[in-house]
């Protein structure tokens, strides 16, 4: 068993197919199949259940994947530790974030990081909370800012950052925009512009509306917040968005709140459960936590343990 075999095995397990693994690793499919075959011969047992176009780990494969993740994590820790020991200053920090958080909450923090450490490259990935959490688990990301719910099965530390307010936005010309607060019944006749079904934001808004006993008439679905705001600004309906995304908006939009319920979403910092964290990554994680939550990582951990 060698590291190249384990690398090929891990990618095949993650992607669910030898063809996908070959594309990711830039190897021929026959080379991938040969590595897997030799690995199974050395271990004396099959590792995958083969289907038509996919492969699935069997019990032995799942066990080997757990050990493989620990092996590659240890190798990465060793490389980073030696790099810091030899005072190598350049490095990469891989950050994941939802598009809204990245657009409205992170530019100031990322800009300050770049000015303070121009020698460190920031690589930012956007995606769903589920995708980003998995990427942290797989150590493809060093950290991510995500929404709840957090998957407890992943090898990830979830630290609560803060609760971000959600507001109900309507065209300023609409009659109910003249009031101070909304009643659930005020919204029933307004066309609603929502996020795509299956997204974390859509699920969260659906839960909020269920609690308010609102059954919205959804007429449009988008993933882009600016597109949603443009539709509301044009008088085509109402929407629910993070408050940070409508601050300073044109007068054509009015952000409103329900009198008896404050809507919100909980943002969390996802960190890999690693035995060693490079100083540059630890420092940035602290700066990120401080900028978003007003607490450093240790304070977030203490706060999180106090909630249990």
The CATH topology of the largest domain is given as D-Maltodextrin-Binding Protein, domain 2
- The radius of gyration over CA amounts to 23 Å
CATH level 1 class label of the largest domain: Alpha Beta
* Count of folded domains: 3
CATH architecture of the largest domain: 3-Layer(aba) Sandwich
What is the ordering of alpha helices and beta strands?
Answer: HHHEEHEHHEHEEEHEHEEEHH
Number of helices: 11
- CATH homologous superfamily of the largest domain - what is it? Periplasmic binding protein-like II
Average pLDDT metric? 88
- State the end-to-end CA separation: 42 Å
Task: Report the biggest beta sheet as strand number plus sense, adding barrel if it closes.
Answer: 7 strands, mixed
Alpha-beta content class:
alpha/beta
Basic shape:
globular
Percent range for helical residues?
40-55%
Strand fraction:
15-25%
Give the low-confidence spans.
none
């Amino acid at each position: 068993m060698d590291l190249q075999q384990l690398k090929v095995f891990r990618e095949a397990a993650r992607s669910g197919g030898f063809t996908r693994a070959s594309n990711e690793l830039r190897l021929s499919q026959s080379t991938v199949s040969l590595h897997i075959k030799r690995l199974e011969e050395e271990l004396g047992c099959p590792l995958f259940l083969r289907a038509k176009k996919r492969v699935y780990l069997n019990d032995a494969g799942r066990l080997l994947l757990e050990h493989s993740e620990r092996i590659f994590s240890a190798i990465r820790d060793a490389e980073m530790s030696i790099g810091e020991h030899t005072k190598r200053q350049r490095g990469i920090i891989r950050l994941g974030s939802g598009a809204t958080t990245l657009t409205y909450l992170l530019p100031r923090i990322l800009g300050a990081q770049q000015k303070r450490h121009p020698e460190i490259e920031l690589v930012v990935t956007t995606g769903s909370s589920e995708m980003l959490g998995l990427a942290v688990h797989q150590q493809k990301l060093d950290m991510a800012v995500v929404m709840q719910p957090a998957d407890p099965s992943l090898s990830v530390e979830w630290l609560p950052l803060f609760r971000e307010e959600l507001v109900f936005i309507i065209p300023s010309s609409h009659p109910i925009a003249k009031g101070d607060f909304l009643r659930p019944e005020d919204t029933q006749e307004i066309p609603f512009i929502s996020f795509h079904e299956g997204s974390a934001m859509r699920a969260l808004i659906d839960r909020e509306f269920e609690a308010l006993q609102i059954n919205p008439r959804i007429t449009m679905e988008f993933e882009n917040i600016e597109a949603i705001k443009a539709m509301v600004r044009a008088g085509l309906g109402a929407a629910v968005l993070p408050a940070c995304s409508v601050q300073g908006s044109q007068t054509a939009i009015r952000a409103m709140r329900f009198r008896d319920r404050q809507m919100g979403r909980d943002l969390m910092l996802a960190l890999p459960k690693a035995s060693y964290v490079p100083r540059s990554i630890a420092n940035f994680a602290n700066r990120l936590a401080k900028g978003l939550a007003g607490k450093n990582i240790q304070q977030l951990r203490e706060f999180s343990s106090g909630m249990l």
